[in-house]
Amino acid sequence: MILTVDLSSDVPLYQQLRDRVVEAIAAGDLSEGSPLPATRTLASDFGINFHTVNKAYELLRQQGLIRLNRKTGAVVIAPVANPTFRADWTARARTLLAEAVARGVPADEVLTACHDVLHTFNASQLEDTA
After folding, report:
1. Is 23 exposed, middle or buried (0-12, 13-18, 19+ CB in 10 A)?
2. What is the pTM of this model?
3. 13-76 has which CATH code?
4. What pLDDT digit, counting tens, does each position of 100-127 carry?
5. Separation in Å, CA 19 to CA 9, 15, 102, 130
6. Which residue spans of the chain are classified as CATH 1.10.10.10?
7. Which residues touch 56 (CB under 8 Å, ≥6 apart)?
């Protein structure tokens, strides 16, 4: 797994790290039991403070995507059903889609982009949408 961050982005580094791990899980690059790099190692690789990596890992833990353990470090866990997740996700998606509409992106382009992105993820995790 190769993580990338943009040090000049307006998006906080911890959020970029969190997002890249989520994308790696969705793409199948990380599966249940996959270890993540140690916080100090990852921080050193990016030349960032290890507290930034800690913050990203803690966010992933709170969201039920990884387990943190002193002995084993950060490890991807199996998805856990979260009844509020779909409502939260829908609200975030609504805002992102509203931004596209407000900026004049045609609906067919929005749908094509959504479809294309969705199909970059692990096909075994997706239901057939056709």
Report:
1. middle
2. 0.84
3. 1.10.10.10
4. 999 999 999 999 999 999 998 875 555 5
5. 13, 6, 24, 27
6. 13-76
7. 13, 14, 15, 17, 18, 21
